[in-house]
Design brief:
With 80 residues, the protein is mainly alpha-helical. The protein has two helices and no strands. The chain has one domain. The protein starts with a helix and ends in a 16-residue tail after the last helix. The relative contact order is 0.15.
């Protein structure tokens, strides 16, 4: 069964919120309060979430305009 566009957008929103939450201490300048293993764990989780995020964005782009479809491709990026 094909996932609806609304479901893809919901999934994208959930992933974006998870990434935002994981990066919160980094954006606020409080990364020094994180242990090195916690910082590494967050980086790996963010990388994995970004892979999912890119896949969903590409699927939305593919469905939105089949004639002018573009694909996001990361080059030399951890999420590839």
């Amino acid at each position: 069964m094909e996932i609806s566009l609304a479901d893809l957008i919901d999934r994208l929103s959930i992933i974006n919120n998870k990434i935002w939450h994981l990066e919160e201490k980094l954006r606020s300048g409080k990364e020094e309060t994180l242990e090195l293993d916690e910082l590494g764990s967050r980086a790996i989780t963010i990388r994995d979430l970004n892979k999912q995020r890119i896949a969903i964005k590409n699927e939305i782009n593919r469905r939105f305009d089949k004639n002018n479809y573009f694909e996001e491709i990361k080059v030399s990026h951890l999420s590839e």
